[in-house]
C-alpha cells in the first residue's frame, strides 16, 4: 500500500495486512482514510492477549477493554473477562459506547467488574445529529447497568453549541440517582487533539461552564462528579 511511508501495509486476498514490526506509528494511514479507520489490526486469541498482559501482572489489579464497540465481540470478550478473572484475579472494566444490548449478555455482565459508558447527548435528535445513531440503546444500558450496580463511570463530552449539555447532565444525574448508583460522572471538555478533521474546528468549552455542569449534578445529589 503506497500510502504507508514505512511499507508496513500490504494487500493479501483483498485484505489490508499490517506489519507491526515495520510500522513507525506515523498516523498517515488513519489521516488518509476518509473514515479515519485504522488498518493496524491483528487477530489474537484470548491466550495471546493474556500473554501480552502477563509481564504486567505484578503491577496491575485489572484491565480495561475498549473499542470501537467491544460488545460487538461478545463471545471473545466473555472468554477474556472470564480467564482474566479466574486465571489471574484481574477485574475487567468494559469501555462502551452503549450500542450493544448488555442486558442480553448476562455472562459477560456478571464476569465484568464494571462498565464505562459514553452518553453523548440525552436528546434523541441531538444524539442522532452528533453520531448518526439513536441513543435508545445507550439510555437503556445506562438504566440497566446502573440498576444492577455494574456501572462504574458515565462520560459526557461537552462541545458548546452541539447539544443541550445541561439537559444531558441533569437527566443522566436523575437516572443515576433513581437507580441508587454510585457511578462516577465524568464531564469532559472537548479537545480538538486527535479527533477527525471534520470536528477539529469545534469550540472548546470554558472550564467555568464545565464546573457549572458538575455543580448541577452535585446539587441534585451525585457525590462522585469529576471535570476533565
Ligand atoms: S501508522 Fe500507518 S502509515 Fe504510518 S507506518 Fe504505521 S501503518 Fe504505515
UniProtKB/TrEMBL annotation:
InterPro entries: 4Fe4S_Fe-S-bd, 4Fe4S_Fe_S_CS, Organic_radical-activating, rSAM, rSAM_sf. This is Radical SAM protein. CDD domains: Radical_SAM. Keywords: 4Fe-4S, Iron, Iron-sulfur, Metal-binding, S-adenosyl-L-methionine. Pfam families: Radical_SAM. It comes from Gracilinema caldarium. Residues 14-43 form the 4Fe-4S ferredoxin-type domain. Its cofactor is [4Fe-4S] cluster. Signal peptide: none annotated. GO terms for molecular function: 4 iron, 4 sulfur cluster binding; catalytic activity; metal ion binding.
Amino acid at each position: 500500500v503506497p500510502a504507508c511511508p514505512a511499507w508496513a501495509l500490504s494487500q493479501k486476498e483483498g485484505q489490508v495486512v499490517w506489519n507491526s514490526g515495520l510500522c513507525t506509528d506515523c498516523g498517515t494511514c488513519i489521516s488518509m482514510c476518509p473514515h479515519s479507520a485504522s488498518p493496524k489490526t491483528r487477530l489474537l486469541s484470548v491466550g495471546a492477549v493474556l500473554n501480552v498482559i502477563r509481564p504486567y501482572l505484578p503491577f496491575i489489579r485489572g484491565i480495561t477493554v475498549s473499542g470501537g464497540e467491544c460488545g460487538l465481540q461478545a463471545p471473545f470478550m466473555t472468554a477474556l473477562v472470564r480467564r482474566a478473572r479466574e486465571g489471574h484475579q484481574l477485574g475487567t472494566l468494559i469501555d462502551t459506547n452503549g450500542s450493544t444490548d448488555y442486558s442480553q449478555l448476562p455472562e459477560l455482565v456478571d464476569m465484568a467488574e464494571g462498565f464505562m459508558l459514553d452518553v453523548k447527548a440525552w436528546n434523541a435528535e441531538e444524539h442522532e445529529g452528533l453520531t448518526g445513531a439513536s441513543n435508545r440503546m445507550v439510555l437503556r444500558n445506562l438504566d440497566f447497568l446502573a440498576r444492577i450496580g455494574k456501572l462504574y463511570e458515565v462520560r459526557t463530552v461537552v462541545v458548546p453549541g452541539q447539544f443541550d449539555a445541561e439537559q444531558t447532565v441533569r437527566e443522566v444525574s436523575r437516572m443515576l440517582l433513581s437507580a441508587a448508583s454510585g457511578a462516577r460522572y465524568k464531564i469532559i471538555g472537548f479537545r480538538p487533539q486527535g479527533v477527525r478533521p471534520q470536528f477539529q474546528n469545534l469550540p472548546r468549552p470554558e472550564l467555568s461552564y464545565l464546573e457549572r455542569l458538575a455543580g448541577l449534578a452535585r446539587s441534585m445529589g451525585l457525590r462522585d462528579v469529576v471535570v476533565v
